[in-house]
Amino acid sequence: MFVKQLSIFIENKAGRLNEVLMTVSGNGINIVSASLADTNDFGVLRLLVSDPDKAHKVLKEKGITSKLTDVIAVSIPHAIGSLRDVIFAINEAGVNIQYIYGLSLNGEGASIAMKTDDMEKTVEVIDSMGVKMFTQEEL
Length: 139
Prior knowledge:
Helices cover 30% and strands 37% of the residues. It is of the alpha+beta class. It folds into two domains: 3-70, VC0802-like (2-Layer Sandwich); 71-138, VC0802-like (2-Layer Sandwich), CATH 3.30.2130. The chain is elongated.
């Protein structure tokens, strides 16, 4: 089960983040999660939104570069070692995790989104553990 993530490349200057968020939310799209990693000149803003295709389109219309990427959104039980257990199982399956970030989706423990170098295998590992995965419609 994959969900679509928007990766948006923005200049690291005042007002650019606001412009992106206003463009997305101003078009009736709910922003579920955001993660921003920056360098001196540019940042990569990763968003999970209620309508990623529409968000991608409206950003393009505004001249804002974005890309749609599949990620996996899972709910990690609220217990010591739960995140470690999921990460360990994925690692043991020989899959590299490229990045993770936290989400707040359902109030039942911590949720994360992740991108790996073998998404299908990662879904198999997570599914075998009985860990909740989200669909695009649940965002």
